[in-house]
Design brief:
By secondary structure, the protein is mainly beta. Helices cover 5% and strands 29% of the residues. It has one helix and 14 strands; from the N terminus they run E-E-E-E-E-E-E-E-H-E-E-E-E-E-E. The protein has a four-stranded antiparallel sheet with strand order 2-5-6-7, with no helix packed on it. The chain has a four-stranded antiparallel sheet with strand order 9-10-11-12, with no helix packed on it. Strands 1-3 form a two-stranded antiparallel sheet. Strand 6 (49-54) and strand 7 (59-63) form a beta hairpin. The chain binds zinc ion (3 copies). One zinc ion binds next to helix 1.
Length: 196
């Protein structure tokens, strides 16, 4: 049995050979750990190394072939479980509440931003006339404004609410680092394609 994982969001750089995992085991621990933790996110590295980010902040992983860590649907009876992981996993909706009460935990960087991430940027396609642009991140038509100083003038699309057609996020950097490729399509600055 696997659970759906949350994206492995980070402020750091992530090379293109690292893959975000969509599913993972319910519980993991290394042999040296005193308790089982719950994966919030997972990343696959070259040579079949997998690292799970636990809800409490621990990173647990290693080579899947050498059994560097243990995974379980249910910890063996009597073995303790990390309380932070258990509460946050249930509160974020990854699993049922262990108490029966409605728990709530809202991880950061998951919900789409209210303002379009392309606001005040050059991520637009100018329409004829040059006063309106089509947002490359969300598809909305919005006015263009001159921004920057007198010595550095540039046109930007105005701040606007993210349209319903907002591009899917990078699993690692979400919508924070959108940029354009040479042919004009939008992608994450880490190089990952985010096409629908
Ligand atoms: Zn934990
Ligand atoms: Zn937009
Ligand atoms: Zn990225």
């Amino acid at each position: 049995m696997t659970v759906a994982l949350f994206p492995p969001t980070t402020r750091g750089t992530v090379s293109l050979d690292i893959e975000a995992l969509a599913e993972g085991p319910r519980f993991v621990r290394t042999r040296g750990m005193s308790r089982w933790h719950r994966p919030r996110s997972g990343s696959r590295y070259p040579q079949d190394r997998v690292v799970y980010g636990a809800w409490c902040g621990y990173g647990i992983g290693g080579s899947e072939r050498t059994g560097a860590f243990l995974a379980a649907d249910e910890p063996p009876a009597g073995e303790p479980v990390c309380a932070t992981c258990e509460g946050r996993a249930a509160g974020a909706g990854q699993d049922n509440s262990p108490t029966g009460r409605l728990l709530l935990f809202t991880p950061r960087d998951i919900a789409p931003p209210k303002n379009c991430p392309a606001s005040r940027s050059c991520l637009y396609e100018a329409l004829s006339g040059g006063r309106v642009g089509r947002c490359l991140a969300c598809g909305e038509l919005q006015p263009l404004r001159a921004m920057g100083g007198p010595y550095n003038p540039r046109y930007s699309i105005v701040q606007h609410q993210a349209g319903a057609a907002l591009v899917p996020p990078c699993p690692f950097h979400r919508w924070r680092q959108l940029t354009t490729a040479e042919d004009g399509h939008v992608l994450c600055a880490c190089g990952r394609e985010i096409n629908q």
